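In this supplementary section we document a worked example of the pipeline. Step one takes a protein sequence of length 216 as its only input; no multiple sequence alignment statistics are reported here. Step two produces a three-dimensional model, which step three serialises into C-alpha coordinates for compact storage. The input and output of this example are shown verbatim.
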Amino acid sequence: MHAPVWLFDLDNTLHDASRHIFPHINQAMVDYICRHLSVDEQQATRLRQNYWLRYGATLLGLMRHHQIDPQHFLWHTHQFPDLSRMLVFERALRMMLRRLPGRKIVFSNAPLRYSEAVLELLGISNCFDAVYSVERLRFQPKPAVGGFRQLLRSERLRADRCIMVEDSLSNLTTARRLGMKTVWVSRSTRRPLAVDVRVPSLLDLPGHLSRLQTVS
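The serialised model returned by step three reads:
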Protein backbone atom coordinates (compact mmCIF):
# COMPACT_ATOMS: atom_id res chain seq x y z
CA MET A 1 0.00 0.00 0.00
CA HIS A 2 1.26 3.49 -0.88
CA ALA A 3 1.28 6.27 1.68
CA PRO A 4 -1.75 8.47 0.92
CA VAL A 5 -1.85 12.14 0.04
CA TRP A 6 -4.05 13.99 2.52
CA LEU A 7 -6.14 16.93 1.29
CA PHE A 8 -7.25 19.02 4.24
CA ASP A 9 -9.90 21.70 4.16
CA LEU A 10 -9.00 24.70 6.32
CA ASP A 11 -12.00 26.42 7.94
CA ASN A 12 -14.06 24.22 10.28
CA THR A 13 -11.67 21.35 9.63
CA LEU A 14 -8.21 22.37 10.82
CA HIS A 15 -9.78 24.95 13.14
CA ASP A 16 -13.22 26.05 14.32
CA ALA A 17 -14.17 29.03 12.17
CA SER A 18 -17.81 29.13 13.24
CA ARG A 19 -17.15 30.74 16.61
CA HIS A 20 -15.55 34.02 15.56
CA ILE A 21 -14.12 33.99 12.03
CA PHE A 22 -17.14 33.07 9.90
CA PRO A 23 -19.45 35.65 11.54
CA HIS A 24 -16.77 38.29 10.88
CA ILE A 25 -16.31 37.25 7.22
CA ASN A 26 -20.06 36.98 6.61
CA GLN A 27 -20.63 40.52 7.86
CA ALA A 28 -17.71 41.79 5.80
CA MET A 29 -19.23 40.16 2.70
CA VAL A 30 -22.61 41.73 3.39
CA ASP A 31 -20.99 45.15 3.83
CA TYR A 32 -19.04 44.69 0.59
CA ILE A 33 -22.15 43.69 -1.37
CA CYS A 34 -24.07 46.66 0.04
CA ARG A 35 -21.36 49.08 -1.08
CA HIS A 36 -20.55 47.67 -4.48
CA LEU A 37 -23.99 46.53 -5.64
CA SER A 38 -25.91 49.42 -4.03
CA VAL A 39 -28.36 47.18 -2.18
CA ASP A 40 -29.58 47.23 1.41
CA GLU A 41 -28.35 44.83 4.11
CA GLN A 42 -31.29 42.46 3.77
CA GLN A 43 -30.78 42.09 0.01
CA ALA A 44 -27.03 41.71 0.47
CA THR A 45 -27.53 38.96 3.06
CA ARG A 46 -29.88 37.13 0.74
CA LEU A 47 -27.40 37.33 -2.16
CA ARG A 48 -24.54 36.13 0.02
CA GLN A 49 -26.49 33.11 1.24
CA ASN A 50 -28.02 32.23 -2.12
CA TYR A 51 -24.69 32.31 -3.95
CA TRP A 52 -23.02 30.28 -1.22
CA LEU A 53 -25.73 27.61 -1.45
CA ARG A 54 -25.76 27.59 -5.25
CA TYR A 55 -22.03 27.71 -5.99
CA GLY A 56 -20.29 26.69 -2.77
CA ALA A 57 -18.80 30.18 -2.48
CA THR A 58 -20.38 33.65 -2.48
CA LEU A 59 -17.46 34.89 -4.57
CA LEU A 60 -18.36 32.73 -7.56
CA GLY A 61 -21.90 34.09 -7.72
CA LEU A 62 -20.63 37.66 -7.53
CA MET A 63 -18.13 36.99 -10.33
CA ARG A 64 -20.68 35.33 -12.58
CA HIS A 65 -23.59 37.68 -12.07
CA HIS A 66 -22.05 41.03 -11.09
CA GLN A 67 -18.52 41.02 -12.60
CA ILE A 68 -16.95 41.57 -9.17
CA ASP A 69 -13.12 41.56 -9.16
CA PRO A 70 -12.26 38.46 -7.07
CA GLN A 71 -8.95 39.81 -5.75
CA HIS A 72 -10.61 43.03 -4.59
CA PHE A 73 -13.44 41.10 -2.92
CA LEU A 74 -11.13 38.67 -1.12
CA TRP A 75 -8.87 41.44 0.15
CA HIS A 76 -11.71 43.48 1.63
CA THR A 77 -13.63 40.57 3.15
CA HIS A 78 -10.67 38.90 4.89
CA GLN A 79 -9.35 41.68 7.09
CA PHE A 80 -9.09 40.79 10.78
CA PRO A 81 -8.36 43.12 13.70
CA ASP A 82 -6.67 40.31 15.68
CA LEU A 83 -6.75 36.95 13.91
CA SER A 84 -4.80 35.12 16.61
CA ARG A 85 -7.49 35.85 19.23
CA MET A 86 -10.23 34.61 16.89
CA LEU A 87 -8.74 31.17 16.26
CA VAL A 88 -10.22 28.15 18.06
CA PHE A 89 -8.34 24.89 17.56
CA GLU A 90 -7.10 21.67 19.16
CA ARG A 91 -3.74 22.19 20.87
CA ALA A 92 -2.61 18.68 19.88
CA LEU A 93 -3.28 19.34 16.18
CA ARG A 94 0.37 19.57 15.13
CA MET A 95 1.25 16.33 16.90
CA MET A 96 -1.66 14.53 15.23
CA LEU A 97 -0.68 15.73 11.75
CA ARG A 98 2.87 14.48 12.25
CA ARG A 99 1.52 11.03 13.08
CA LEU A 100 -0.21 10.70 9.71
CA PRO A 101 1.82 8.95 6.98
CA GLY A 102 2.10 10.59 3.58
CA ARG A 103 2.09 14.08 2.10
CA LYS A 104 -0.38 16.70 3.27
CA ILE A 105 -1.93 19.54 1.26
CA VAL A 106 -4.34 22.30 2.27
CA PHE A 107 -7.26 22.52 -0.18
CA SER A 108 -9.41 25.53 0.67
CA ASN A 109 -11.88 28.00 -0.81
CA ALA A 110 -10.24 30.71 1.30
CA PRO A 111 -7.72 33.23 -0.11
CA LEU A 112 -4.00 32.50 0.14
CA ARG A 113 -2.99 35.37 2.43
CA TYR A 114 -5.59 34.37 5.00
CA SER A 115 -4.85 30.63 4.67
CA GLU A 116 -1.14 31.09 5.22
CA ALA A 117 -1.75 33.40 8.19
CA VAL A 118 -4.03 30.84 9.85
CA LEU A 119 -1.60 27.96 9.30
CA GLU A 120 1.23 30.03 10.75
CA LEU A 121 -0.79 30.98 13.84
CA LEU A 122 -1.85 27.36 14.33
CA GLY A 123 1.82 26.38 14.25
CA ILE A 124 1.31 23.84 11.46
CA SER A 125 2.63 25.58 8.33
CA ASN A 126 5.52 23.17 7.96
CA CYS A 127 3.20 20.15 8.18
CA PHE A 128 1.97 20.83 4.63
CA ASP A 129 3.70 20.54 1.28
CA ALA A 130 1.37 22.95 -0.53
CA VAL A 131 -1.58 25.28 -0.04
CA TYR A 132 -4.26 25.37 -2.74
CA SER A 133 -6.27 28.51 -2.14
CA VAL A 134 -9.14 29.78 -4.28
CA GLU A 135 -6.72 31.88 -6.37
CA ARG A 136 -4.54 28.85 -7.13
CA LEU A 137 -7.68 26.95 -8.13
CA ARG A 138 -8.36 29.68 -10.74
CA PHE A 139 -11.43 30.73 -8.75
CA GLN A 140 -13.12 27.33 -9.16
CA PRO A 141 -14.08 26.75 -5.52
CA LYS A 142 -15.21 23.45 -4.06
CA PRO A 143 -17.52 21.62 -4.64
CA ALA A 144 -17.00 22.34 -8.36
CA VAL A 145 -15.00 19.54 -9.93
CA GLY A 146 -12.72 21.99 -11.78
CA GLY A 147 -10.83 22.95 -8.64
CA PHE A 148 -10.27 19.32 -7.73
CA ARG A 149 -8.93 18.54 -11.20
CA GLN A 150 -6.67 21.59 -11.09
CA LEU A 151 -5.06 20.35 -7.87
CA LEU A 152 -4.70 16.78 -9.15
CA ARG A 153 -3.06 17.97 -12.39
CA SER A 154 -0.72 20.40 -10.64
CA GLU A 155 0.44 17.79 -8.12
CA ARG A 156 0.41 14.92 -10.66
CA LEU A 157 -1.83 12.89 -8.40
CA ARG A 158 -4.30 10.11 -8.96
CA ALA A 159 -7.57 10.67 -7.14
CA ASP A 160 -7.48 7.17 -5.65
CA ARG A 161 -4.25 8.03 -3.84
CA CYS A 162 -5.94 10.92 -1.98
CA ILE A 163 -7.89 11.23 1.24
CA MET A 164 -10.11 14.32 1.48
CA VAL A 165 -10.73 15.61 5.03
CA GLU A 166 -13.63 18.07 5.18
CA ASP A 167 -16.55 19.40 7.18
CA SER A 168 -18.66 19.94 4.01
CA LEU A 169 -20.66 17.01 2.63
CA SER A 170 -21.05 18.61 -0.80
CA ASN A 171 -17.26 18.87 -1.13
CA LEU A 172 -16.82 15.26 0.01
CA THR A 173 -19.41 14.14 -2.55
CA THR A 174 -17.26 15.55 -5.38
CA ALA A 175 -14.15 13.96 -3.88
CA ARG A 176 -15.84 10.57 -3.64
CA ARG A 177 -17.08 10.74 -7.23
CA LEU A 178 -13.51 11.30 -8.36
CA GLY A 179 -12.38 8.20 -6.47
CA MET A 180 -10.91 9.73 -3.31
CA LYS A 181 -11.32 8.35 0.19
CA THR A 182 -13.29 10.74 2.37
CA VAL A 183 -13.29 11.83 6.01
CA TRP A 184 -16.17 13.90 7.36
CA VAL A 185 -15.35 16.07 10.38
CA SER A 186 -18.74 16.19 12.07
CA ARG A 187 -20.56 15.36 15.28
CA SER A 188 -23.51 14.03 13.31
CA THR A 189 -24.53 10.45 14.11
CA ARG A 190 -25.26 9.59 10.49
CA ARG A 191 -22.76 8.52 7.84
CA PRO A 192 -23.83 9.47 4.29
CA LEU A 193 -22.79 7.40 1.28
CA ALA A 194 -20.08 9.90 0.31
CA VAL A 195 -18.31 9.36 3.63
CA ASP A 196 -15.79 6.59 4.35
CA VAL A 197 -15.00 7.72 7.88
CA ARG A 198 -16.69 10.22 10.21
CA VAL A 199 -14.73 11.77 13.07
CA PRO A 200 -16.18 14.16 15.67
CA SER A 201 -12.68 15.55 16.24
CA LEU A 202 -9.73 15.73 13.89
CA LEU A 203 -7.61 14.26 16.67
CA ASP A 204 -9.45 10.95 16.14
CA LEU A 205 -8.07 10.61 12.60
CA PRO A 206 -5.01 8.38 13.30
CA GLY A 207 -7.31 5.73 14.78
CA HIS A 208 -8.96 5.19 11.39
CA LEU A 209 -5.89 4.71 9.21
CA SER A 210 -6.63 1.06 8.45
CA ARG A 211 -10.01 2.00 6.93
CA LEU A 212 -8.42 4.73 4.80
CA GLN A 213 -5.72 2.76 3.04
CA THR A 214 -5.33 3.80 -0.59
CA VAL A 215 -4.58 1.61 -3.59
CA SER A 216 -1.10 0.57 -4.66
